[in-house]
């Protein structure tokens, strides 16, 4: 089949751009403004879920759901303050450019859209290597459901067995596993190796720079 039919699907927050803790602080403050004291470590473990799912995960299904939209909007406004200085993780752009040169179709799978996605792409600075972006808006269910990864594969035109998904959260690994792709975890989002492996990671690396340096022995070889 040749190398043309391979897809490398990447989560973005915490995987390519060092944003997880900015999300934690923004969600923590949004919850606080709505009258909820949610511990930051709990927020951190929920990062990577779609907004409504994250709120449900942290406040429970018996919460006042009328607050959901305000909490989500609060997070979005607070997080938006960082758009001009989102830090890419080490060698994130170089990793995508290398995979593109090696014949992989690179697709981003992210819940970000609009101005947020634009800010993330500016941080990564590898637009020429990115074939497509699968947004959470395009699917009914976000991670850990397989739909975001399946949608990315549709955009790439590649079957699951010809794809690798790289992410930093338990939700990423579960979504990738359910979609039938090989999963690679990175530790730079702050989730422990054991949690990633238990959730389906075939291999785990420190960050994009580590994955790039070990590419020849990785699932992306």
Notes on the structure:
With 221 residues, this protein is α/β, with parallel strands linked by helices. The chain folds into 2 domains: 6-18 and 87-217, HAD superfamily/HAD-like (Rossmann fold); 20-81, DNA polymerase, domain 1 (Orthogonal Bundle), CATH 1.10.150. The protein has 10 helices and 6 strands. It has helices at residues 20-33, 40-46, 51-59, 68-80, 92-101, 114-124, 147-156, 170-179, 193-198, 208-213, and strands at 6-10, 104-110, 130-135, 163-167, 182-186, 203-205. α1 (20-33) packs across α4 (68-80). The radius of gyration is 17 Å and the shape is globular. It starts with 5 loop residues before the first strand and ends in an 8-residue tail after the last helix. The relative contact order is 0.18. The model has no long low-confidence stretch (mean pLDDT 96).
CATH fold group of the largest domain: Rossmann fold
Strand content: 5-15%
From the alpha carbons, calculate the radius of gyration and give it in angstroms. 17 Å
String of helices and strands: EHHHHHEHEHEHEHEH
- What's the total helix number? 10
Estimate the mean pLDDT confidence.
96
What sort of overall outline do the alpha carbons produce when their principal axes are compared?
globular
The biggest beta sheet reads: 6 strands, parallel
Architecture of the largest domain in CATH? Answer: 3-Layer(aba) Sandwich
What is the topology, as strand order, of the major beta sheet? 3-2-1-4-5-6
In total, the number of strands is: 6
| CATH level 4 superfamily of the largest domain | HAD superfamily/HAD-like
Q: Which bin fits the share of residues in helices?
A: 40-55%
Total domain units = 2
């Amino acid at each position: 089949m040749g190398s043309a039919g391979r897809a490398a699907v990447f989560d973005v927050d915490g995987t390519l751009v060092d944003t997880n803790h900015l999300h934690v602080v923004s969600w923590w403050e949004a919850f606080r403004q709505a009258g909820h004291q949610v511990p930051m470590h709990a927020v951190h473990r929920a990062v990577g879920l779609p907004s409504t799912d994250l709120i449900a995960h942290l406040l429970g299904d018996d919460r006042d759901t009328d607050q959901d939209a305000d909490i989500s909007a609060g997070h979005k406004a607070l997080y938006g303050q960082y758009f001009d200085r989102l830090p890419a993780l080490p060698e994130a752009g170089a990793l995508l450019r290398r995979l593109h040169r090696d014949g992989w179709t690179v697709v981003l799978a992210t819940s970000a859209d609009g101005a947020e996605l634009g800010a993330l792409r500016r941080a990564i600075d590898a637009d020429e290597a990115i074939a497509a972006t699968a947004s959470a808006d395009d699917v009914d269910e976000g991670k850990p459901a397989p739909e975001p990864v399946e949608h990315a594969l549709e955009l790439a035109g590649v079957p699951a067995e010809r794809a690798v998904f790289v992410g930093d959260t338990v939700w990423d690994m579960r979504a990738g596993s359910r979609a039938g792709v090989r999963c690679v975890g990175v530790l730079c989002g702050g989730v422990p190796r054991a949690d990633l492996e238990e959730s389906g990671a075939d291999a785990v690396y420190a960050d994009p720079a580590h994955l790039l340096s070990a590419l020849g022995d990785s699932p992306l070889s």
